[in-house]
Amino acid sequence: MKILKRFGLAQRILLGWMAQTILIIGLFSVAMHESTELMEDNLVSDILKDELSILVSEIEAGEDVALPNSMQFYGNAPQLKPIPEQYTLVPDGYQEIVNSRDFAFLYKITVNGHSYVLIRDQYDFERSEQIFKILIAGCATLIFLFCLGFGYWWIRKKIMAPIESLSNEVRQMAESQQYRSLASEITDDEIGELAKICDRALKRFHEALSREKLFTSDISHELRTPLTVIETTAELMQLYPLTDKQNEQVGKILKAAKSIEELLAVFLQLARGDDFQKSSNTDRVYDVIGEIADNLKKTAEAKKLRLSVQSAATCPGHYSPVLLSTVVNNLVKNAILYTESGEVIVRELADGFEVIDTGIGIPKEMHDKVFMPKVRATNKAPGSGMGLSIAKRICDRCGWKLQLLDSETGTHFRVCLVIEEPILYADQRGKAF
């Protein structure tokens, strides 16, 4: 079954068709051969028996015996040639002799204490039989080739054509992200039912996607107004004499507002599937993870956790602080949220960074699901289950690689930022990054 999965649908149908054809041809050929052999044995046996009975009657009547060249007549009667030694022990009845020296039909009877043997050369029969076998093989080959050609044409034109047409239309809609009714002719069969299901599903999907994009756009637009007010107010405050502490706090407000504005743009691009815009500001990995650690330090201290930033090697390159800090922030916040005691380590690596904690960990059976939206490690786990999903989506769109590694205690996330060959995800095909 695993081997069959490597073939396409048309190939599997054709293989099944040809397997059935071979089985039928094989059974028919065997039946023809066996029927011929049975008929030959019965027919030759009856002929030899009748011929031998006539010859014995003639011998007993004292008449001369005349035989064609293809037959030989032996017996232990005085007027006949003695039975050859190799045939003396042959039982009465019909025999077919096939060895290195003889190819003949033999019939033996015993009458009044005398044994008689009639032998007929079977060269002509063997030649006819070989010709018949060649004819059967030739016909079987022609039938096989005809079925192969007809099966290929029928499967391609009558079975696969509507499926391929449906597949192409669905693929085009997926690439264009625009819904339109299926142009393919919907037949009244299983394929037609599949086409109707695909059409209804695509319509609902695109309607839901349109509503989500519109909602995201509205939220992004509406939140920009209060953000603008916050930025303007903070900038006006900087025009007045402020203490160093006040200037620092106002600077944090401005920076946070800018970050939120950029985050809104990131989430809007994620929802729309647009390309990420290159940020004019770039930071090194260690600077980003250090800033995130500073922002979350008080949260960690409130739970009596040690939050440390380490550097095992220097990761080359500069990265968008908004995109990278969003990934780092979600991973570190999750680590703090799910860790009750111990420490959380954020470590720079030669190709990215890793986040390690001593928390409750993630069951191995959840490793493949934990990056899905609204999925948490356990039902009792805190949080909304969106942090890892957002981090994974950003990594996917940026060509980074987010991994959940096996760990004896806690969790161990690793993000590879420097990858020799870009990872091409399904939603990135045909798009430049």
Describe this entry's structure for a reader.
The structure is a single chain. By secondary structure, the protein is of the alpha+beta class. It has three domains: 4-141, no CATH class; 190-272, Signal transduction histidine kinase, dimerisation/phosphotransfer (DHp) domain (Helix Hairpins), CATH 1.10.287.130; 285-428, Heat Shock Protein 90, CATH 3.30.565.10. The protein is 54% helix and 13% strand. The chain contains eight helices and nine strands. It has helices spanning 9-60, 85-88, 123-176, 190-237, 244-272, 285-302, 321-337, 387-398, and strands at residues 71-75, 93-98, 103-111, 114-121, 306-311, 343-349, 352-357, 401-405, 412-416. The strands form two sheets. The protein has a five-stranded mixed sheet. The protein has a four-stranded antiparallel sheet with strand order 1-4-3-2, covered by helices on one side. Strand 5, helix 7 (321-337) and strand 6 (343-349) form a beta-alpha-beta unit. Helix 1 runs antiparallel to helix 3, helix 3 runs parallel beside helix 4 (190-237) and helix 4 packs antiparallel against helix 5 (244-272). It is elongated, with a radius of gyration of 45 Å. The two termini are 40 Å apart. Its EC number is 2.7.13.3. One of its GO terms (molecular function) is kinase activity.
